[in-house]
Amino acid sequence: MAHALAGTKVRTEDLVDLTALCNAYYEVVPSVEVAGQKVSFGTSGHRGISTAGSFNDLHVAAITQAVCDGRKEFGAEGPCFVGHDTHALSAPALDTVLEVLAGNGVVACVDSENGFVPTPSVSRAIIRYNEAHDVKADGLIITPSHNPPDNGGIKYNPTNGGPADTSITGWIEAKANEYLAAKGAGIKRIKLEEIPADLQIEYDYKGLYVKELTEIIDIKAIQKAKPKVLINALGGSGAAYWEAISEAYDLNLTIINGDYDPSFSFMTYDYDGAIRMDCSSVYAMADVIAGIGDYDLAVGNDPDYDRYGVVTKDGLMAPNHFLVTAGSYLFKTRSWEGKGFGKTIVVTGMVDRYCKDAGIPVYEVPVGFKYFSSLLFDGTIGIGGEESAGASFLKKDGTVWTTDKDGMIMGLLAMEMWATTGHSPAELYEELTAKYGTPYFTRVDTPCTLAVKTALKKLSADDVKDKELNGEPITAIRTNSAFGDYAIGGLQITVPSGFVVARPSGTENLYKVYAESFSGEAELKELVSAGSRLVESVAL
C-alpha cells in the first residue's frame, strides 16, 4: 500500500538541510571499524550519506586513490573522464576527485562549460576517445543515481566505457578500505586551486554527444513528424542536454524541472513517502502523468540520466513494456543481422517470446548493467536492458554507442517510434501483447533473517526438489545466469506461464521476489506466494 503522501508535492519541512549535508561531507571522518562506514561497491559503485559517515571526503579520496593505483593494471594510462550529477554531495565530491587525480599526475577531462555531465555522456566520451587513441582512457562518475537528495555516490568505468566488473570493483573496494583504515595516509592530492593547468583538459561533453545523436537516432523522422513532447528533466545532469538537443535539431520539446535545485523541492513523494528521483515511478512522475494533456509523449530521466521514463496518454509505461517494444522496433528498423537481445533475469519473458519468433538470440545475465558492457562493446547484442529502466543500444551501423545506460537515447527512441509508425510506444506494446500474450509483473520485498539471506545466496539448483510450482511444471531452476554462467545471487524458477526470481537485498534484512505471469493478475499473486514458500523452505 502506497504512503499517504505518495504522488503529492514535497513539503518544505521534508527537504534536506543542504548546509548540514555538505558540512558533514568534510567534517565527519568515517571509521573502517563501522560496517556501514566502509567503502562498499554495490551494483553501481559506492553510495552513502555524509551525515551518516558513509559518503565523505575520505571515502571519495580513498576510492579515487585506489583507482589511480590500479588503473594501469586495468588498461588505462590516458586521461580520466569525470562527470557528476546534481545531488548536493556531487559538487564537493567532484573537487575531491579532481584533487586526488591531480595528486597522482592523472589528467582529468572536465566539462568545458563547467556543467554537469550525465553518465551516458561519460561512457560515450571514453569510447569516443579510445577509438582514436592507443593509450586508453577511463572514467569516474559521481552520482547516487535516482537515490534521495541526501545521498552521494561514485562509480568507476574502465576502458570499455561501462560499469566496472566485480574483479575491478572488488580490488578498488579493498584498496580504498586500506586507505580508510590508515585515515587517509598515502593518499596523494593537490589543492583544487593549485592544480597545474596541464593536468586538466576542458572537454566538450555536451556538444559532441548532441552532434553524434544522428548516428543512433532517426532525427530527421522526428523533425518531420514534430511530435509534441514534454520533457521532465527532474533537475538532473542532462537538463542542458535536452535544451541543446531541442535547439540543435529544432524539436518540439517543452522542458520542465530543468533548474538546478539540489534539494529537489519540485518533486512529488515516491510510493514510500521518500523523495526519490525515479523516472520509472508513477508517484515520482505524478505531475508529468497528470500534465500529459495534448502532448504526444512525455519523457523523464533520473539525476544522472542513465534511466528513462516514457509517458503516453495511457500513462507511464512499465520499463519492461517499453524495453521489449523498443527492442522489437529496433530489430525491424536497424540492419543488425546476427545481433542479440540482452536482458537480465528479471526482464519480462515477452522478450524471449518475441525473440524466439523473430529468430533473435537472447543473452540473459544477472541484475547489473556491467554484464551488458562487453556485449554492447563488441556488438554481440543490439540492445541490452534492465527492468529498472536502464538500457542502451547500438548505433545505426551496428557499432557501439555507450556501454552504460543511456536514458536520453531511450527517450529519443520513443519519439522516433511515434514519428515513424504513427503510434505511441504504448500502442505498439499492445500489438505485441495481442501476438504474444499479456505479462503481469510484480516485486515483493519480504523481511527475513541474515541467515536466510546468506542461505539464499549459497543455494544451488539441486537444493530445490520440487517438480511443480503453483500447479505448473518447473521448466528450469537456476542459480547462475543462462549466459555466462554468472552467479545471480539468488534463485530463478521458470514455469510455462512465467517466472519467479528471489534475491537477497544487499542493504537490508529482506529478500526480493520478482515474478511474472502470462496467466493473469490473480495467478501472479498465487505465483508470488508459492515462490516465497518454496524459497523459504529451501533457505531455512
SSE blueprint and pairings:
Blueprint: H1 18-27, E1 41-42, E2 45-49, H2 57-70, E3 80-84, H3 90-103, E4 108-111, H4 119-132, E5 138-142, E6 151-157, H5 166-181, E7 200-203, H6 205-212, H7 219-225, E8 229-232, H8 239-249, E9 253-256, H9 286-290, E10 297-301, E11 308-312, E12 315-316, H10 319-333, E13 340-344, H11 350-358, E14 362-365, H12 370-377, E15 381-385, E16 391-393, H13 407-421, H14 425-436, E17 440-447, H15 450-458, E18 468-469, E19 472-473, E20 476-480, E21 487-495, E22 498-504, E23 510-517, H16 521-539
Parallel strand pairs: 3-4, 3-5, 4-7, 8-9, 8-10, 13-14, 13-15
Antiparallel strand pairs: 1-2, 2-6, 5-6, 10-11, 11-12, 15-16, 17-23, 18-19, 20-21, 21-22, 22-23
What does this 3D model show about the protein?
There is one protein chain. The chain has 16 helices and 23 strands. With 540 residues, it is an alpha/beta fold. Among the domains are: 12-208, Alpha-D-Glucose-1,6-Bisphosphate, subunit A, domain 3 (Alpha-D-Glucose-1,6-Bisphosphate, Chain A, domain 3), CATH 3.40.120; 440-539, TATA-Binding Protein, CATH 3.30.310.50. The strands form five sheets. The chain has a seven-stranded mixed β-sheet with strand order 1-2-6-5-3-4-7, sandwiched between helices. A five-stranded mixed β-sheet has the order 9-8-10-11-12. Strand 10 (297-301) and strand 11 (308-312) form a beta hairpin. The relative contact order is 0.11. The mean pLDDT is 96.
